[in-house]
Amino acid sequence: MNRRQWLWLLGACVSVGALPCWRRFFSSRSGINPMGFLRTTDPTDGYAHAGTDQRFEFPKDHGPHNHFQHEWWYFTGNLRDQVGRPFGFQLTFFRFALSPEKINSSSAWATQDAMLGHFAVSDIEGGHFHAYQRTGRPVLGIAGMSADPARVWIRDWQARFQPQRTAGWQLEACHHNTQLHLDAVSHKAIVLQGQNGFSRKGPGNDNASYYYSMPRLQVAGNLVLEGKPFPVSGQAWMDHEWGTTTLSADTVGWDWFGLQLSDGCELTIYLLRREDGSYTPFSAGTWTNSEGISIPLCATDFMLSVTGHWRSSSTHVRYPAGWTLTVTSLGVSLSILPRLAGQEWHSPIRYWEGAVAITGTRAGNQLDGIGYVELTGY
After folding, report:
1. So what's the pLDDT on residue 112?
2. What's the CA angle centered on 202, arms 64 and 50, to 5 degrees?
3. Dist. CA 70–CA 57, nearest whole Å
4. Burial code of 14-49, b = ≥16 C-beta within 10 A, e = fewer?
5. pLDDT per residue as tens digits for the range 37-53
6. How far apart (Å, rounded) are the C-alpha atoms in residues 129 and 316?
7. CB crowding 342-351: b at 16 or more within 10 Å, else e
8. How far is CA 360 from CA 112, 113, 251, in A?
9. What does the pLDDT look like over 284-311, one tens digit per residue?
10. What is the rounded CA–CA span in Å between residue 315 and residue 345?
């Protein structure tokens, strides 16, 4: 994000008296820790809060939920071109409320939200991570969110739901000579994470969100990387989550895993991490079998061990870079490795998000897979 964009964001916050919400973002000289926005003791009066009485309605709930403090639409995936060259991609849209109240202003530029977009391509064979950020004010069509049909966009970046395409999405992003255009089609049921979509992240009333996934999207389209076109296809994962505050005070970050296995099953795991590196008891996950039937997992159902590390030359942050994951009740034992070590976002928001490869066994049978891992708060 350049100086002009930061000045715009700060100006937007000042205009509605919401500067404290952005101060929570600034927690490191080597990058912004996004956990600051999700872990706050500031009053949240006026915002809606997640509860166990939510009844999801699709495709409506693919759209925005502006009465909550924050929300994101997350698309990640692994692609191959026609000769098998591998790539990873990420396209994410974040919405952050600046105020719970509608802005009382006649200006066409008045807004109660700020939007942020992240677009990345992992060139696994070439060893390069291309990452781009964009901000947007949801006014005058420059950026925005809609529910019918569901769409979220910042200028020419967009994710648009296409109900006529077997519950599919159209994904588009462009930054100079790097472009992505994908059609994504789901052949499995939506997975409601947690307790029927109510995802508890801590002991307090504010420590929860609504969270669902589309864990196996078949994607096809075109990637342009440094001006060179690649027809691509592969598999993607979509997460949509919204809430108010969400994290408890002792949570400094999370390790999130979205894994797609060769036997047609998927595994979501998120581990909420304390300052000392231990995981809170609110860590959880979901196993989805090949028929689309999901089983919720609690923190005692699985074990994750770190097998390697990678240190960033840009931020000098040391991240986990290899894991073993076991789910004893399912007979699952997996080894997970980054497909490219340096998949770090480091300016201005610091986290690691990247494509991973999987090998292992289930009930004694060999399997492999692909997925994405997100590491925040390091």
Report:
1. 79
2. 30
3. 19
4. ebbebeebbebbebeeebbbbbbbbbbeeebeebbb
5. 555 555 577 899 999 88
6. 17
7. bbbbbebbbb
8. 47, 44, 30
9. 999 999 999 999 999 999 999 999 999 9
10. 10
Q: Which two tokens stand for residue 132?
A: 């781009």
Q: Cis check for the bond before 348: say yes or no (omega within 30 of 0).
A: yes
Pairing of strands 309-311, 332-338: unpaired
Task: Record the tokens describing residue 163, joined without a space.
Answer: 């109900």
101 pLDDT band, cuts 50/70/90, is: confident
**Percentage of residues in the chain with pLDDT exceeding 90?**
73
CB 5, CB 92: distance < 8 Å? no
336-372 residue pLDDT tens: 999 999 999 987 789 999 999 999 999 999 999 999 9
> Which uninterrupted H or E stretch holds 143?
strand 143-147
Q: 260 near 219, Cβ under 8 Å?
A: no
Pairing of strands 266-273, 253-261: antiparallel
Q: Using an 8 Å Cβ cutoff, are 233 and 246 in contact? A: no
Tokens 């026609």, residue? 82
